């Protein structure tokens, strides 16, 4: 069952279509380490192939497809699919920063932000450019860097057609040149009916 879930994951999430590539990824040593974990997950989402170890985790996952958000913020109108997301959001109102760096005492609202910060002390740069081997502490910085190699410019001015590597550059362009076309609202999560 874990293999079927992994195949579905590679096809849906990574858009992998080549069967030989899928088989190679499944047989790679890095995936063999995960077999024990995946095989424990016996509750399967029929919409996307997500596998959960407990039925309650599948219920929470299904809210991503239905758009259900039963947990409401006490401070604003936002709602969330689970209590964990709500707790994290509440910190934006309270200013709580419970994760503290042992080296410099800088505080963070989320554990993953502290983990990323720790790279500044350790020198760890795990994201490596496949074009020039330059390394980065953040995946987003690698993504922006790779666009310089590939020429990808996904942020395009709707008036003049000029493309930019990141959204901030497009916003600056609009401000400097005065190209303020009507900006469409952010995409909402697709709700399945």
Which percent range fits the helix content?
40-55%
What do the pLDDT scores average to?
A: 82
Q: Could you give the order of strands across the largest sheet? A: 1-2
The backbone outline, from C-alpha atoms, is extended
Count of strand segments? 10
- What structural class do the secondary elements suggest? mainly alpha
- Rg, Å, rounded: 21 Å
Describe the largest sheet: 2 strands, antiparallel
| Span between termini | 28 Å
Give me the number of helical elements. 9
**Estimated share of beta-strand residues:** 5-15%
Low-pLDDT residue spans: 29-38, 184-193
Series of H and E elements: HHHHEEHEEHEEHEEHEEH
For the record, the count of structural domains works out to 3
Report on this model:
The protein has 193 residues and is mostly helical. The protein has 3 domains: 52 residues; 52 residues, Double Stranded RNA Binding Domain; 51 residues, Double Stranded RNA Binding Domain, CATH 3.30.160.60. 46% of the residues lie in helices and 10% in strands. It has 9 helices and 10 strands. The chain has a two-stranded antiparallel ribbon with strand order 1-2. Strands 3-4 form a two-stranded antiparallel ribbon. It is extended, with a radius of gyration of 21 Å. The C terminus is likely disordered.
